[in-house]
Each structure stands twice: as C-alpha cells, then as structure tokens.
C-alpha cells in the first residue's frame, strides 16, 4: 500500500512537473509573441513615421519647386516687361529720328525751293533788264516820239 501511495505521489509529482514545464513554455511563447507583436508595432510605427517624413519632404520639395517656378515666372514677366519697355523706347527713338529726318528733309526742300525761287527771280530780273536794254536800244533808233522826247521837243 505504501508503495502504491509512493508511486502515485511520484506520478503526481511528475505530472505536476510536466504541467509546470508546459505552463512555463506557454508563458515563454506568449512572451515571445508579445515581444514580436511589440516589435511589429514598433516597426509599423517607424514605417508610418518614415512615410510621414517622406510625405512631408515631398510636400516641402513641391512647395519649393512651386515657389521657384513662381519666381522664374515673375522673373520672366519682369524680363518681358523690360524687353517691351526697351522695344517701346527703341520705337519712340526711331519715330523721333524719323520725325527729325522728315523735318530736316522738309527744311532742305524749303531751302531748295527758296533758292530756286530766288534764282528764278534773279533770272527774271536779268531777263527784264536785258529786255529793257534791248527796248531802249531799239527805241532810240526806231521811235520818233521817243527821239523827240529825248531831244526835248515834246
């Protein structure tokens, strides 16, 4: 009887030991699982953070690019405006030059006309003088009334 009790208590002890070992193993497994889950969560969090950072960086880059584009556009606009202004100035200058040239041409024409008129007048005067001289010459010999007038008979 004593042997049976000893045997059952030994069996119970063995069973208890086995159960304890099993429980320990289960606990260990659970702990490992928990740790793994924690790691996974951490990794996920890290990934999320990285993603967020990347997104932020991308947004910043986009903003910078947009700003740069805007600046470039503004610069281009300014350049265009400057070019337009320069063109306008050039056009104005050209117009002024043309006007000046026209004025000069007009003046020259006027001067030429005046000179021509003067020359014509001079020629006319000369012609008149010549005619007068010629008439005087011919009248001296051919007109008896004039001859008489010269002689003082009239």
From TrEMBL:
Residues 1-11 have a biased composition (Basic and acidic residues). It comes from the Eukaryota. Residues 12-36 have a biased composition (Acidic residues). Residues 39-137 have a biased composition (Basic residues). InterPro entries: H1/H5. GO terms for molecular function: DNA binding; structural constituent of chromatin. Residues 1-154 are annotated as: Disordered. One of its GO terms (biological process) is nucleosome assembly. One of its GO terms (cellular component) is nucleosome. This is Uncharacterized protein. It comes from Clitoria ternatea. The lineage of its organism: Eukaryota, Viridiplantae, Streptophyta, Embryophyta, Tracheophyta.
């Amino acid at each position: 009887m004593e042997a049976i009790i000893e045997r059952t208590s030994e069996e119970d002890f063995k069973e208890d030991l086995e159960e304890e070992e099993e429980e320990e193993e289960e606990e260990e497994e659970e702990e490992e699982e928990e740790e793994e889950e924690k790691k996974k969560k951490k990794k996920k969090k890290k990934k999320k953070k990285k993603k967020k950072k990347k997104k932020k960086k991308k947004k910043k880059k986009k903003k910078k690019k947009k700003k740069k584009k805007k600046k470039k556009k503004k610069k281009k606009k300014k350049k265009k405006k400057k070019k337009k202004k320069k063109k306008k100035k050039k056009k104005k200058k050209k117009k002024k030059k043309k006007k000046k040239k026209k004025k000069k041409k007009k003046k020259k024409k006027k001067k030429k006309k005046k000179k021509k008129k003067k020359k014509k007048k001079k020629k006319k005067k000369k012609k008149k003088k010549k005619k007068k001289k010629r008439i005087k010459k011919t009248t001296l010999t051919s007109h008896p009334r004039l001859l008489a007038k010269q002689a003082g008979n009239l």
